[in-house]
Amino acid sequence: MAARLLIADDEALIRFHLREVLLALGYLIVGEAADGQQAIALTRQMRPDLVLLDYKMPHLDGIEAATVLHNEGLAPVILLTASASRELAERARAAGVFGYLIKPFRDGELLPLIEVVLARWQAYQARRKEMLALRERLETRQEIEHAKHVLMEQHGLTEGEAFRRIQQLAMRNRKTMREVAQAILLTHQLSSGQR
Protein backbone atom coordinates (compact mmCIF):
# COMPACT_ATOMS: atom_id res chain seq x y z
CA MET A 1 0.00 0.00 0.00
CA ALA A 2 1.34 3.42 -0.97
CA ALA A 3 2.35 5.80 1.81
CA ARG A 4 0.04 8.78 2.30
CA LEU A 5 1.86 12.12 2.32
CA LEU A 6 0.98 15.72 3.11
CA ILE A 7 2.89 18.62 1.56
CA ALA A 8 3.17 22.05 3.23
CA ASP A 9 4.90 24.91 1.45
CA ASP A 10 3.77 28.51 1.01
CA GLU A 11 4.88 28.50 -2.64
CA ALA A 12 2.24 26.91 -4.89
CA LEU A 13 4.81 26.12 -7.59
CA ILE A 14 6.95 24.10 -5.17
CA ARG A 15 3.86 22.23 -3.87
CA PHE A 16 2.88 21.43 -7.45
CA HIS A 17 6.37 20.16 -8.31
CA LEU A 18 6.59 18.07 -5.13
CA ARG A 19 3.14 16.60 -5.76
CA GLU A 20 4.08 15.60 -9.31
CA VAL A 21 7.39 14.01 -8.23
CA LEU A 22 5.83 12.18 -5.27
CA LEU A 23 2.91 10.87 -7.34
CA ALA A 24 5.39 9.61 -9.95
CA LEU A 25 7.23 7.79 -7.14
CA GLY A 26 3.99 6.02 -6.22
CA TYR A 27 2.97 7.96 -3.11
CA LEU A 28 -0.53 9.25 -2.40
CA ILE A 29 -0.90 12.96 -1.66
CA VAL A 30 -3.70 13.37 0.91
CA GLY A 31 -3.38 17.11 1.41
CA GLU A 32 -1.53 20.31 0.69
CA ALA A 33 -1.07 23.31 2.97
CA ALA A 34 0.23 26.82 2.41
CA ASP A 35 1.14 27.55 6.05
CA GLY A 36 2.04 25.82 9.30
CA GLN A 37 -1.38 26.15 10.94
CA GLN A 38 -3.10 24.65 7.91
CA ALA A 39 -0.52 21.83 7.87
CA ILE A 40 -1.33 20.95 11.49
CA ALA A 41 -5.10 21.06 10.88
CA LEU A 42 -4.83 18.89 7.75
CA THR A 43 -2.52 16.43 9.49
CA ARG A 44 -4.99 16.05 12.37
CA GLN A 45 -7.80 15.52 9.88
CA MET A 46 -6.14 13.37 7.20
CA ARG A 47 -3.66 11.38 9.35
CA PRO A 48 -0.94 11.09 6.68
CA ASP A 49 1.96 8.67 7.03
CA LEU A 50 4.45 11.51 6.57
CA VAL A 51 4.47 15.31 6.32
CA LEU A 52 6.87 17.37 4.21
CA LEU A 53 7.11 20.86 5.75
CA ASP A 54 8.84 23.89 4.33
CA TYR A 55 10.78 25.73 7.03
CA LYS A 56 9.71 29.26 6.08
CA MET A 57 5.92 29.53 6.06
CA PRO A 58 3.48 32.16 7.30
CA HIS A 59 1.62 31.95 10.63
CA LEU A 60 3.69 29.02 11.96
CA ASP A 61 7.03 28.04 10.50
CA GLY A 62 7.93 24.45 9.71
CA ILE A 63 9.77 23.91 13.00
CA GLU A 64 6.86 25.16 15.11
CA ALA A 65 4.44 23.00 13.13
CA ALA A 66 6.80 20.00 13.39
CA THR A 67 6.93 20.45 17.17
CA VAL A 68 3.14 20.24 17.41
CA LEU A 69 2.96 17.20 15.10
CA HIS A 70 5.71 15.44 17.04
CA ASN A 71 4.23 16.22 20.46
CA GLU A 72 0.85 14.90 19.33
CA GLY A 73 2.48 11.82 17.77
CA LEU A 74 0.66 12.43 14.48
CA ALA A 75 3.25 11.82 11.77
CA PRO A 76 6.96 12.05 11.05
CA VAL A 77 8.18 15.27 9.47
CA ILE A 78 10.73 15.93 6.76
CA LEU A 79 11.79 19.57 6.88
CA LEU A 80 12.52 21.29 3.56
CA THR A 81 14.78 24.31 3.88
CA ALA A 82 17.26 26.46 2.00
CA SER A 83 19.38 26.84 5.13
CA ALA A 84 22.11 24.44 6.17
CA SER A 85 22.92 26.20 9.44
CA ARG A 86 23.83 24.27 12.57
CA GLU A 87 21.32 26.33 14.58
CA LEU A 88 18.43 25.35 12.29
CA ALA A 89 19.53 21.71 12.33
CA GLU A 90 19.55 21.80 16.16
CA ARG A 91 16.09 23.37 16.24
CA ALA A 92 14.82 20.72 13.81
CA ARG A 93 16.27 17.94 15.96
CA ALA A 94 14.71 19.42 19.10
CA ALA A 95 11.34 19.67 17.30
CA GLY A 96 11.38 15.95 16.55
CA VAL A 97 11.99 16.29 12.82
CA PHE A 98 12.82 12.89 11.31
CA GLY A 99 14.43 14.08 8.07
CA TYR A 100 16.01 17.22 6.67
CA LEU A 101 16.35 18.14 3.01
CA ILE A 102 18.18 21.23 1.73
CA LYS A 103 16.75 23.12 -1.25
CA PRO A 104 17.35 22.94 -4.08
CA PHE A 105 17.34 19.16 -3.89
CA ARG A 106 17.35 16.56 -6.62
CA ASP A 107 14.10 14.66 -7.09
CA GLY A 108 16.04 11.41 -6.67
CA GLU A 109 16.85 12.35 -3.06
CA LEU A 110 13.19 12.12 -2.01
CA LEU A 111 12.52 8.38 -2.32
CA PRO A 112 15.37 7.10 -0.12
CA LEU A 113 14.79 9.82 2.47
CA ILE A 114 11.04 9.16 2.65
CA GLU A 115 11.50 5.40 2.93
CA VAL A 116 14.13 5.74 5.69
CA VAL A 117 11.96 8.21 7.61
CA LEU A 118 8.90 5.92 7.33
CA ALA A 119 10.94 2.97 8.65
CA ARG A 120 12.36 5.06 11.52
CA TRP A 121 8.86 6.29 12.38
CA GLN A 122 7.55 2.73 12.58
CA ALA A 123 10.40 1.76 14.89
CA TYR A 124 9.86 4.90 16.97
CA GLN A 125 6.13 4.19 17.29
CA ALA A 126 6.80 0.57 18.32
CA ARG A 127 9.27 1.72 21.02
CA ARG A 128 6.86 4.41 22.20
CA LYS A 129 4.01 1.91 22.45
CA GLU A 130 6.24 -0.50 24.35
CA MET A 131 7.37 2.27 26.71
CA LEU A 132 3.76 3.32 27.40
CA ALA A 133 2.79 -0.30 28.08
CA LEU A 134 5.72 -0.67 30.50
CA ARG A 135 4.79 2.57 32.25
CA GLU A 136 1.19 1.37 32.53
CA ARG A 137 2.29 -1.96 34.05
CA LEU A 138 4.60 -0.21 36.51
CA GLU A 139 1.90 2.24 37.60
CA THR A 140 -0.58 -0.64 37.96
CA ARG A 141 1.87 -2.62 40.07
CA GLN A 142 2.58 0.41 42.28
CA GLU A 143 -1.12 1.10 42.84
CA ILE A 144 -1.83 -2.55 43.66
CA GLU A 145 1.12 -2.61 46.08
CA HIS A 146 -0.10 0.54 47.78
CA ALA A 147 -3.68 -0.81 47.98
CA LYS A 148 -2.36 -4.09 49.47
CA HIS A 149 -0.59 -2.15 52.23
CA VAL A 150 -3.76 -0.18 52.97
CA LEU A 151 -5.73 -3.45 53.30
CA MET A 152 -2.99 -4.99 55.43
CA GLU A 153 -3.07 -1.97 57.79
CA GLN A 154 -6.84 -1.60 57.96
CA HIS A 155 -7.81 -5.28 58.19
CA GLY A 156 -4.72 -6.97 59.60
CA LEU A 157 -4.28 -9.09 56.46
CA THR A 158 -1.12 -10.75 55.23
CA GLU A 159 0.29 -9.59 51.91
CA GLY A 160 -1.08 -12.70 50.16
CA GLU A 161 -4.53 -12.22 51.69
CA ALA A 162 -4.62 -8.57 50.66
CA PHE A 163 -3.64 -9.50 47.11
CA ARG A 164 -6.34 -12.21 46.95
CA ARG A 165 -8.93 -9.74 48.27
CA ILE A 166 -8.09 -7.31 45.44
CA GLN A 167 -8.21 -10.18 42.94
CA GLN A 168 -11.61 -11.40 44.20
CA LEU A 169 -13.09 -7.89 44.19
CA ALA A 170 -11.88 -7.42 40.62
CA MET A 171 -13.45 -10.68 39.44
CA ARG A 172 -16.69 -10.16 41.35
CA ASN A 173 -17.18 -6.61 40.05
CA ARG A 174 -15.80 -7.26 36.55
CA LYS A 175 -13.09 -4.63 37.04
CA THR A 176 -9.35 -4.70 36.55
CA MET A 177 -7.14 -5.10 39.59
CA ARG A 178 -5.90 -1.58 38.96
CA GLU A 179 -9.44 -0.17 39.09
CA VAL A 180 -10.07 -2.01 42.38
CA ALA A 181 -6.75 -0.76 43.77
CA GLN A 182 -7.62 2.80 42.76
CA ALA A 183 -11.02 2.49 44.48
CA ILE A 184 -9.35 1.19 47.67
CA LEU A 185 -6.84 4.03 47.61
CA LEU A 186 -9.53 6.64 46.95
CA THR A 187 -11.69 5.30 49.79
CA HIS A 188 -8.67 5.31 52.10
CA GLN A 189 -7.79 8.86 51.06
CA LEU A 190 -11.35 10.09 51.67
CA SER A 191 -11.61 8.40 55.06
CA SER A 192 -8.19 9.73 56.10
CA GLY A 193 -9.14 13.24 55.03
CA GLN A 194 -12.32 13.23 57.13
CA ARG A 195 -10.49 12.62 60.39
From TrEMBL:
Pfam families noted in UniProt: ANTAR, Response_reg
Record flagged with keyword Transmembrane helix: no
Keywords, in A-Z order: DNA-binding, Phosphoprotein
GO cellular component, one term: cytosol
Biological processes per GO annotation: regulation of DNA-templated transcription
TM spans (from-to): none
Protein name, entry field: Response regulator receiver
Keyword DNA-binding among record annotations: yes
PANTHER family reported in the protein's UniProt record: REGULATOR OF RPOS (PTHR48111), RESPONSE REGULATOR RECEIVER (PTHR48111:SF69)
Residues annotated as domain ANTAR: 124-185
In-chain residues carrying the UniProt-annotated modification 4-aspartylphosphate: D54
Signal peptide: none
Domain of life of the source: Bacteria
GO molecular function, one term: transcription cis-regulatory region binding
InterPro entries reported for this sequence: ANTAR, CheY-like_superfamily, Sig_transdc_resp-reg_antiterm, Sig_transdc_resp-reg_receiver, WalR-like, WH-like_DNA-bd_sf
Residues annotated as domain Response regulatory: 4-118
Organism ancestry: Bacteria, Bacillati, Chloroflexota, Chloroflexia, Chloroflexales
